């Protein structure tokens, strides 16, 4: 009879894949129990299904539950192992069940089914209402689930009615990132685009010139399709790649760090996801502290740290309300937390001070062009000077600018011409190093994580681009875990070489 998998073995299987863990035993199927004794309403059973690597965490469009059948959200963006998570539901369904998936490598399948819980009684919640300028569901708790046996990591909770299901993201967070690489989930960005209830930070009913937008968003509501698309394209692929790298990871959200910056103390490095656009002041300062203390940073997208936001407590928990007026003149608060672009007054602190690059353009689509094939993070890719990797550039890009706020020395191993709305611009990959010994890497393109293994496909993305992104991402995570990276691999300053004509066509919203 197989012995139960302990926490270390479970995480190892997530990182290297079941096939590697049972090398030479291809017919062995892991059946050991890894599950939680959940505590739903009395009489509701928990089925501990054990470790089951699966692609079942992917929900095809035909199986997505319509809103009238069931909708759901979690009362927490993250929990520590053992902290209960509350599930809030509404819809016509008379009953529903819960399936819990941990996302990781898992032999390339991307996830593992941890347990099934339920059934639970259905409930019809009240319609959305506006509180503190934000749409909110504020439905009562439908179930409380124990997470005591859930390893730290990124999860998808599936609320299931028959063959239909809706998904809820959740991070089981680490107590500290000390001695590890922090994998940071960009919860604030998911919510900024979330149009559930009729309003987001982008509009009401449609994303057009900010018309009808709210100045705040409440986390007590389900995610809409736009938010789930962000997870699928920019978050989950990096989670899978992070575990494939095999480095020791700490799991956090940017909200966790904003509320408790000490979570990043002693981190070897920190990884920002493919769409980490909305930053509270405390979060940015925590990242700067990591870098200035010798820890490494990586930004796997573009448009990172573009908007400054404030977090508050709407009465359901700290950090459950995010305010962003997107205009200093509209925001009644003046000072370091005014919710405008980070590059704008008052207290301007452009994002290139930490990312190394400024957000440049949208929409863009094109090929990444390699200028320095000997760049250390390109090891194992086989790329040559002038190589074009189709599909990696866009839809949003960053660019190194010759400004006093640009860190030095800064290296540009990829320099890619692009056209945005008829104007010529460039996307740059950047790497800079600091006196503290830190190394900071940024891809300069939002297409990066869309090239990693994920459900669906990206039109125009070549196989060569996918292979390149996967190899470099693995190299970056291993570099993030390296002490004195900036001293082992100091950047070669190339700022003058990329001092191209200024033409910021930024259309960022």
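Q: What amino acid sequence fits the structure above?
A:
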């Amino acid at each position: 009879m197989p012995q139960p998998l302990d926490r270390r073995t479970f995480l190892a299987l997530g990182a290297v894949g079941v096939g590697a863990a049972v090398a030479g035993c291809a017919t062995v199927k892991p059946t050991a129990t890894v599950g939680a004794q959940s505590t739903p309403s009395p009489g509701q059973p928990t089925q501990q299904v054990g470790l089951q690597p699966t692609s079942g965490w992917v929900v095809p469009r035909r199986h997505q539950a319509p809103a009238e059948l069931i909708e759901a959200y979690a009362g927490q963006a993250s929990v520590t192992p053992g902290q209960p998570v509350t599930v809030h539901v509404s819809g016509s369904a008379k009953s529903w069940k819960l399936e819990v998936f941990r996302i990781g490598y898992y032999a390339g399948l991307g996830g593992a089914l941890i347990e099934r819980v339920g059934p639970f009684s259905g409930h019809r919640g009240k319609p959305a209402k506006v509180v503190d300028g934000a749409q909110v569901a504020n439905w009562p708790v439908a179930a409380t689930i124990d997470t005591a046996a859930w390893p730290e990591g990124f999860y998808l909770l599936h609320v299931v009615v028959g063959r239909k299901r809706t998904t809820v993201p959740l991070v089981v967070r680490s107590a500290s990132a000390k001695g590890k690489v922090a994998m940071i989930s960009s919860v604030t960005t998911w919510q900024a685009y979330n149009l559930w209830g009729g309003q987001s930070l982008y509009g009401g009913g449609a994303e057009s010139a900010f018309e009808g937008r709210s100045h705040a968003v409440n986390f007590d509501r389900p995610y809409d399709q736009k938010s789930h698309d962000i997870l699928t394209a920019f978050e989950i692929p990096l989670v899978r790649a992070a575990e494939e790298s095999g480095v020791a990871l700490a799991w956090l959200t940017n909200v966790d760090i904003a509320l408790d910056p000490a979570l990043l103390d002693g981190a070897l490095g920190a990884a920002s996801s493919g769409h980490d656009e909305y930053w509270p002041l405390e979060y940015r300062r925590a990242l700067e502290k990591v870098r200035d203390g010798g820890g490494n940073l990586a930004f796997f997208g573009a448009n990172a740290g573009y908007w400054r936001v404030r977090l508050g407590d709407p009465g359901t928990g700290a950090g459950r309300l995010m305010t962003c007026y997107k205009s200093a003149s509209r925001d009644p608060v003046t000072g370091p937390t005014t919710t405008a672009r980070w590059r704008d007054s008052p207290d301007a602190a452009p994002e290139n001070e930490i990312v190394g690059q400024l957000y440049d353009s949208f929409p863009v689509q094109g090929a990444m062009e390699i200028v320095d094939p000997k760049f250390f993070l390109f090891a194992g890719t086989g790329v040559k000077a002038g190589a074009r990797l189709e599909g990696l550039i866009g839809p949003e890009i960053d660019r190194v600018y010759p400004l006093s706020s640009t860190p030095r020395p800064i290296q540009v191993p990829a320099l890619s011409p692009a056209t945005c709305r008829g104007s010529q611009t460039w996307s740059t990959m950047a790497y800079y190093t600091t006196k503290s010994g830190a190394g900071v890497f940024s891809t300069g393109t939002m297409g990066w994580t869309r090239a990693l293994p994920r459900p669906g496909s990206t039109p125009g993305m070549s196989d060569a681009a996918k292979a390149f992104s996967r190899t470099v991402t693995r190299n970056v995570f291993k570099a993030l875990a390296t002490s004195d990276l900036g001293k082992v691999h100091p950047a070669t300053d190339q700022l003058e070489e990329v001092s191209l004509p200024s033409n910021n066509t930024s259309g960022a919203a």
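Q: And what stands out in the fold?
A: Residues 1-44, 501-505 have pLDDT under 50 and may be disordered.
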